[in-house]
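Supplementary Methods. Inverse-folding protocol.

Structures were first reduced to a discrete structure-token string of length 331. This string, shown here, constituted the complete conditioning input.
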């Protein structure tokens, strides 16, 4: 391989067409910005990421003046170069959620920074490792930063009942496990028997099949929960309002819950918020450690070769994935 060029996938936002470049320049790390050069092994896809440049251009292009959209913001790979002050060294195998303000990781070489990285769990394959950062960090922050659960030994959590919608998705599988580890009673919403088996195995005490039981109907027959984690949005988020107790909490990673509040329950007092995951290397390192210890596990929906990127994104667009879709960049 030419050490000065690399295969890179570009998404043209105007034509909405992928461009596969077989000999793109390798990015040049800037030590002053804490840039580490990464040999990418695998990357994982995020739902809706191809729409981010259109919806949030001022954010997405803030560190990307050339406007080149390289998809894939989860990465697993090996550090090739590091700033002298970095705690990471060349040869370290890492995972990272790189900021979408810069080109992503559907390329053979990429850039990551210390705040974005943690050491890769030694017991995982490259494909499994790439499935961790965005999804697991989102679940961690939903539970501990936004729902207010005080770690795994919070005595108040033992009395807490939570509902997780989209529980078999890429974020849901982590949230079910973390909530169970924290001692919460978990109700999981899924859409088929296979996903029901999965979330029960991960720690759900009760499962709602949305194809046979609406959240509104479930709330009328089974009561309500202290916290709802909405990972689906839309009508599911609207119906989630019926499931949360008065003075409970409703957290969504899809949309502002207040926009979906039904008129019938305006009198209910609910703390509700929408959030976007933030980089946190300490949290990612703790997650990686728990995976390495076998206390947390990941689920990969499918793995695609680099030249199968169109099939991978088509699979993502279909929805209803179980875990992450991963693209293998290198063997």
């Amino acid at each position: 391989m030419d050490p000065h060029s690399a295969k890179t996938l570009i998404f043209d936002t105007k034509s909405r067409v992928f461009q596969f470049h077989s000999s793109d320049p390798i990015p040049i790390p800037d030590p002053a910005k804490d840039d580490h050069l990464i040999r990418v092994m695998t990357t994982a896809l995020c739902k809706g990421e191809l729409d981010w440049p259109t919806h949030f251009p001022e954010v997405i292009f803030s560190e990307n003046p050339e406007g080149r959209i390289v998809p894939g913001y989860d990465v697993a790979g090996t550090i090739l170069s590091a700033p002298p002050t970095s705690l990471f060294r060349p040869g370290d195998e890492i995972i990272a959620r790189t900021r979408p303000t810069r080109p992503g990781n559907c390329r053979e070489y990429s850039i990551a920074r210390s705040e974005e990285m943690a050491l890769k769990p030694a017991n995982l394959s490259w494909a499994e490792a790439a499935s961790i950062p965005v999804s697991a960090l989102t679940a961690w922050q939903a539970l501990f930063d936004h729902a207010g659960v005080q770690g795994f030994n919070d005595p108040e959590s033992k009395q807490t009942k939570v509902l997780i919608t989209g529980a078999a998705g890429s974020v849901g599988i982590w949230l079910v496990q973390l909530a169970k580890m924290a001692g919460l009673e978990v109700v999981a919403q899924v859409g088929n028997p296979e996903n029901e088996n999965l979330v029960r195995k991960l720690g759900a005490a009760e499962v709602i099949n949305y194809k046979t039981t609406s959240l509104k109907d479930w709330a009328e027959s089974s009561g309500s929960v202290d916290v709802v984690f909405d990972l689906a949005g839309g009508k599911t988020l609207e119906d989630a309002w019926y499931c949360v107790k008065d003075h409970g909490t409703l957290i969504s990673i899809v949309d502002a819950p207040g926009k979906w509040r039904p008129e019938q329950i305006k009198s209910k007092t609910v703390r509700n918020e929408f959030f976007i995951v933030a980089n946190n290397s300490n949290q990612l390192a703790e997650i990686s450690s728990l995976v390495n210890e076998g206390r947390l596990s990941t689920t990969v929906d499918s793995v695609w070769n680099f030249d199968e990127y169109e099939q991978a994104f088509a699979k993502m667009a279909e929805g209803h994935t179980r875990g992450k879709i991963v693209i293998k960049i290198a063997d």
